[in-house]
């Protein structure tokens, strides 16, 4: 059985960006950087692959982003969360098909 995962995104506003000192878990986070939120509802710098999960097809989104001569690839769950956040903040859907999987949860989950 595949692992069930629950993610709770937390979004905040920084009053003093220079005072923000993140301490990410290196096993979970490759880099901390700024990216424009609006990028995640635009077609530019985006690609997608069709995947299947538990019999349901969905699109896995990838966003290429470059800042200060460094390239980042934002994809998967992170991209999906940012697409949804940008849609809420800008009050409009993305300029592309989002197509998330229809999540089905088994009746019994082994702990």
From TrEMBL:
| InterPro entries according to UniProt | CoAse
Which superkingdom, per the lineage? Eukaryota
Please give the Gene3D superfamilies that the UniProt record associates with this protein.
Answer: Nucleoside Triphosphate Pyrophosphohydrolase (3.90.79.10)
CC cofactor: Mg(2+); Mn(2+)
Keywords (alphabetical) are:
Hydrolase, Magnesium, Manganese, Metal-binding
Q: What's a single GO MF annotation on this record? A: metal ion binding
In Swiss-Prot or TrEMBL terms, this protein is called Nudix hydrolase domain-containing protein
The organism is: Gossypium raimondii (Peruvian cotton)
Q: What is the lineage of its organism?
A: Eukaryota, Viridiplantae, Streptophyta, Embryophyta, Tracheophyta
């Amino acid at each position: 059985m595949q692992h069930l995962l629950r993610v709770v995104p937390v979004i905040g506003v920084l009053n003093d960006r220079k005072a923000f000192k993140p301490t990410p878990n290196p096993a979970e986070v490759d880099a901390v950087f700024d990216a424009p939120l609006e990028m995640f509802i635009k077609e530019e710098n985006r690609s997608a692959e069709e995947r299947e999960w538990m019999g349901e097809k969905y699109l896995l989104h990838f966003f290429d982003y470059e800042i200060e001569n460094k390239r980042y690839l934002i994809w998967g769950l992170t991209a999906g969360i940012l697409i949804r956040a940008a849609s809420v903040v800008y009050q409009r859907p993305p300029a592309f098909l989002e197509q998330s999987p229809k999540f089905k949860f088994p009746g019994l989950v082994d702990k």
